[in-house]
Structure formats: C-alpha cells, structure tokens
Design brief:
- This protein has 275 residues and is an alpha+beta fold.
- The chain has three domains: 90 residues, Helix Hairpins (Orthogonal Bundle); 50 residues, SH3 type barrels, CATH 2.30.30; 81 residues, Alpha-Beta Plaits.
- Helices cover 52% and strands 19% of the residues.
- It contains six helices and eleven strands.
- A five-stranded antiparallel sheet has the order 4-3-2-1-5.
- Strand 9 and strand 10 form a beta hairpin.
- The relative contact order is 0.08.
C-alpha cells in the first residue's frame, strides 16, 4: 500500500517542479503570442493604408494584409518558442524536409499560387472587367491566389485555376462591351432616313452609352438589302438586355416611318424549248 502512495507523491512532486520551472515561461510565451496577435493586426492595418495608394483590388488588398498579419504573428511565435527553450534549428531542418515533400505533392497548387501572384502584380484585369480566356468568358467576380471566378449572364459562375490564365491569350473588354447588331433595308430606301431613325433609337435607350459614341454605318450591299451595322457600347451587365431592346425598337421605328425591311427573294424562270 505504501508503494502506490509513494509513487503518487513522486508524481505530485514532479508536477509541482514542472509548474515552478516552466510556469513563468508559459505565461511569458502566452503574453508574447497575445502581443504578436495585436501587433500583427496593427501592422496589417498600416500596410493596408499604404497599399491603398496602388489601387489594388479589394480581394488582393485583403490577401496582402492577411499575409502581413500572419508573418508578424509567426515572428512572435518564434520568440515564444525560444522563451520556452525549444531548439529551433532542428525544428527548421525538419520543416524544410517536410516542406520539400509537400511541395512535390502540391505542384499544381503551388503553380496556382505563383500564377496568382503574377496576376496580382501585373494586373491584366480587375474585378468587374469582362474577360475572355481559356475558352471561357465572363465578368470577373473574385480573384485569389488560387483561382479567378467569372460570372455569366445566366447567373452561373466558372472558377478558373490561375495557372490556366497566366501565359494564355486574354481578351479584356473592360467594364463595357460593344454590341454587334445589324438590320437590312430595301435598296429603294432613303439611307439617311434609316440612319437617322437608328440614331434616334440609340439616343432614346438609357442602356446605350453616349461616350464612346455608337458606331452606325452601311456594312454591306447584299443581294436583296442594304445592311446597316449598329455598334453601340453598353455596360457589361446590360449587354444581353440592350440587344433585345434595340432590335425591338428599331423594328417598331422602321414600321412607324415606313422603312421597309426586305425578306429574301428569289426569281425563278422556267426555260423550255418550243414544241
């Protein structure tokens, strides 16, 4: 019976010794980590204010400030480990070996990160731009280190890994797009009357931007009609709706002003030998 009691006393004594020996260090380490957390937040706010001068995208700005916070907190974490007496050199060596293995296993992810940094600093597009790349197109909704999210007019989204963007041919429409519409009129039509009617339609539609000015002109002298091109600029969000509205308004205006829109015609002659 004495042996278990003696063992229990030894455990209690060891625990008390450890508390006396490491307790103050643990308290100091916890204080260092707390100081690192608040110092990281302060540094992140300062860096955020400085980076606002470069007009970075909100997701990019949030990412950089978060990284700054983590870096500062990591430095304080190293100080806390040193205070506890942890040997950092073996730990760093072990992390290096583990990091090499992780890097080999995560080549695709690291490639996305490298491509994301390239996009962040070269800024080939911004949030809100309409782009076409990798057989996909849409409005840029979000940018991160790993991927870029595009939004389609049907409210669907497509997420493209950043490594699929860097190095590819990218078409950036910006925040406006140019419609490519056309209408045909009969050859006997007063062309200036038709152009004036189209100009009135474009000025009346609130979705059509007046700057840059719409481009309207004769596109082609076709077999049975004179084709007029209608190329106004509209905001990306209005691209689909504006096309339908303008086609409807042009049709109604032409009918009101008696401007004929011809339909395809073919004249067939029957030739035969006399009996």
């Amino acid at each position: 019976m004495a042996d278990p009691l003696q063992s229990l006393d030894m455990v209690k004594a060891s625990a008390i010794d450890m508390v006396v020996k490491f307790g103050p260090r643990l308290v100091v380490a916890a204080a260092i980590l707390a100081a690192g957390y608040f110092a990281g937040r302060w540094v992140a706010r300062m860096i955020g204010r400085l980076l606002q001068r470069f007009k970075l995208e909100p997701p990019v700005l949030a990412l950089l400030t978060r990284v700054a916070h983590l870096v500062v907190f990591a430095l304080f974490g190293i100080m806390a480990l040193q205070n506890l007496g942890v040997e950092l050199l073996p730990l760093i060596a072990g992390l290096g070996v583990a990091g090499a293995g992780i890097a080999l296993a995560m080549q695709g992810i690291l490639g996305n990160v490298a491509a994301g940094l390239t996009i962040i600093f070269t800024q080939p597009f911004h949030v809100g731009d309409y782009i076409s790349i990798a057989d996909e197109e849409g409005e840029v909704l979000d940018m991160s280190l790993f991927s870029t999210t595009l939004g389609h007019t049907d409210r669907s989204k497509v997420v493209i890994p950043n490594r699929k963007i860097v190095g590819e041919i990218l078409h950036n429409y910006g925040k406006v797009r140019q419609l490519d519409l056309s209408v045909g009129v009969a050859y006997g039509t007063d062309i200036n009357l038709a152009l004036g009617a189209i100009d009135a339609v474009l000025r009346a539609n609130p979705r059509v931007l007046q700057e840059p000015a719409p481009v309207v002109g004769v596109r082609q002298l076709a077999d049975f009609s004179v084709n007029i091109s209608i190329n106004p600029w509209v905001a990306v969000a209005d691209y689909v709706a504006a096309g339908g509205e303008l086609n409807k308004a042009v049709l109604e205006t032409f009918r009101e002003r008696g401007i004929e829109i011809p339909f395809p015609q073919r004249e067939v002659r029957m030739l035969g030998s006399a009996a």
